[in-house]
Amino acid sequence: MAVAIQDQKPLINLGLVRAHIAAGFLFIVVAMLMGVLYALQFNNMYPFPNIEFLSPGRVRMIHTNGVAYGFIMNVFLGALYWVVPRLTKRKVLSDKLGWLIFYVYLFIVLWAVVGILSGHAQAVEWGETPSAFAANGTWLFPIDELVMVGLTL
User: Fold this and answer.
1) Taking Cα atoms as reference points, which of 5, 12, 7 lies closest to residue 91?
2) Fewer CB in a 10 Å sphere around the end CB: N or C, the chain?
């Protein structure tokens, strides 16, 4: 028995695609703002010279990580949620899992920004993402590991 076209669920979860694209563009705007702030130091016009958590080094790390993890990965995931169902003619396994991945990944990227601003970054170019927050010697939140787990989902 054939199912009427109007009874079928849509192949693509447009809300999830739009959420990833919107988050990606929000992160690129913030990353560009951080890039402009970083560039101002070269003209001796940096507006926050005595504020440690907004030092040029930390602003640069937010700029590079915002582009890599905030913009590129969100737009890439949004594109995957758009392209894969069209190519395979099958829905993504679980919309709930997709939304969970979106919110957890958003939380991880924002938590990484907090870690960078608070001085917990690693001294590795393009790998500055804090591996964990250590408060009084205790490990609180392994960001690097969560990013890798999240991207493999």
Assistant:
1) 12
2) N
pLDDT at 74: 94
Question: Residue 4: is its pLDDT beyond 50?
Answer: no
- pTM of this structure: 0.79
At 7 the pLDDT is 55
SS (H, E, C) the chain: CCCCHHHCCCCCCHHHHHHHHHHHHHHHHHHHHHHHHHHHHHHCCCCCCCCHHHCHHHHHHHHHHHHHHHHHHHHHHHHHHHHHHHHHCCCCCCHHHHHHHHHHHHHHHHHHHHHHHCCCCCCCCCCCCCCCCEECCEECCCHHHHHHHHHHC
User: Of the ranges 4-13, 59-68, 89-98, 102-111, which one carries the lowest mean pLDDT score?
Assistant: 4-13
Which residue is associated with the tokens 């999240």? Answer: 150
Contact (CB, 8 A) for 98 and 15: no
Domain segments of the chain as ranges: 13-152
